[in-house]
Amino acid sequence: MIEATLLQQLQQQFPEHQFAAENLNVVHTGRFANAIVYRYTDQQLDLVIKDFQHSPWWVRKTFAPLSVNQEYKGLARLAGITGVSGRFLRLSPIAVAYDYITGTPLKQLVQQKEVLPVSFFKDFERLVALMHRRGVVHLDLRNLGNVLCSDDGKPYIIDFQSTIRYARFPRWLQQFMRGADMSGVYKAWAKLADQPLPDAKADYLSNFNHVRKRWIFRGYPIQRAYMWGCGIATQIASAIMERFL
Predict the structure, then answer these.
(1) Which regions span the lipid bilayer (predicted)?
(2) How many CB atoms lie within 10 A of CB 233?
């Protein structure tokens, strides 16, 4: 039933395309408040789809729309940048799709003890700096599963559900958020590069790690904490209204 609904939503986005159920496969099974991740692939399309239809009703009414909206807006703000998926679609308030990027997560390359040229990390550094110039922080680049080495050896960033515009925050917090992103670049550089991390960048990473130990949201990005809080508040308000109506 869920898969049939997804195919109908895709058909609305691509009315001239012929979709087949056998081309839709589960990549990652979501649990509770996590989306199920699908991949749809045929001769013309290769898409990643994140969908919350399976989630409990209160997740579908609270966290899921926030997460989908955040990812869609993050991709929209970075449109046209090489290193980010070029096509993205909001299929419904609780489902988003974007072009699949062929590549290997840096986390997997670390596990395989692979190395990458320094040029990859310089490109990655420039990509993050360009993202910041668009007024956006990712907030989860220290998770090396969110960065791919594409088939042509270039860095690509995925999973934008933690993305946020940082201008609304105090300057000290803006600096911390940009630092979180850049420390992800240098963390990957230190683990995977075929040459050592330059001293100045190693000092930057060390200093950020020291500050991060005292950060109350360590390991839990700001935007996810924000969305979680909004979801809980909405759930409580809904329960109160049901009680008195």
Answers:
(1) none
(2) 11
Helix (H, G, I), strand (E, B), or coil: what is residue 105?
strand
Give yes or no for a contact between 46 and 99, defined as CB atoms under 8 angstroms apart.
Answer: yes
Strand stretches in 53-118, DSSP E: 88-92, 95-99, 103-105
User: How many H helices and E strands in the chain?
Assistant: 8, 10
- Note the pLDDT tens digit of each residue in 67-123: 999 999 999 999 999 999 999 999 999 999 999 999 999 999 999 999 999 999 999
- Sheet containing 103-105: give its strands across: 103-105, 147-150, 155-157
| Residue 30, token pair as written in the block | 């979501």
Q: Which two tokens stand for residue 74?
A: 């993050």
pTM: 0.85
Order of strands, edge to edge, in the sheet holding 36-41? 24-28, 36-41, 46-51, 95-99, 88-92
Q: How many CB atoms lie within 10 A of CB 65?
A: 19
